[in-house]
Amino acid sequence: MAEGTRDRILDALEKLLLVNGVAQVTLEAVAAQAGVSKGGLLYHFPSKEALLAAMVRRLGERSDQQLADAVAGGTSASEFYLQIPEVTEHEELSLFRSIIAALRTVDGQHDEIQKAVTDVMRSWDQGLQAEISDPVQAEIIRLVGDGLYLAAMLGLPQPDPELHRQVVERLLP
């Protein structure tokens, strides 16, 4: 039951971030949206920082599962990382925009959120480095993939599909 409550609280946080943005998200608002008392929320997440960090970790877990599913289907980690994100999944991109807004509030005093982001990014780095023996090549692929995702999140023009294909072919051994 506790895990269901945790997920319900994190779902409520995500919904509020999408609708209101980080500035309007309070522990009280999240508790109300999740249908729990503020005390119940604080039992699972003792602070707004802990709540945001848990959301980042959960998104990392979801991304890891998407990667595992892709690899099980025959896609390499590198190919997965270099895909152009589906801009049609508006809610997912909106959520990531909200997360970026939330993370921008980190001013060096929110170690738990920074650690969560670092842990998620490190796990993705490790996956690429495990697949690619050349650490420079793995880093180039990570940087290109990050750029593709950022461009999709910001609504910037996507690369020409043929040019994108050529870039992927050049980067992957």
Automatic annotation (TrEMBL):
Alphabetical list of PANTHER family matching this protein: HTH-TYPE TRANSCRIPTIONAL REGULATOR BETI (PTHR30055:SF234), HTH-TYPE TRANSCRIPTIONAL REGULATOR RUTR (PTHR30055)
Entry-linked SUPFAM superfamilies: Homeodomain-like (SSF46689), Tetracyclin repressor-like, C-terminal domain (SSF48498)
Domain of life, source organism: Bacteria
InterPro entries recorded: Homeodomain-like_sf, HTH-type_TetR-like_transc_reg, HTH_TetR, Tet_transcr_reg_TetR-rel_C_sf, TetR_CgmR_C
Residue stretches making up the HTH tetR-type domain: 3-63
Keywords (A to Z) from UniProt: DNA-binding, Transcription, Transcription regulation
Protein name: TetR/AcrR family transcriptional regulator
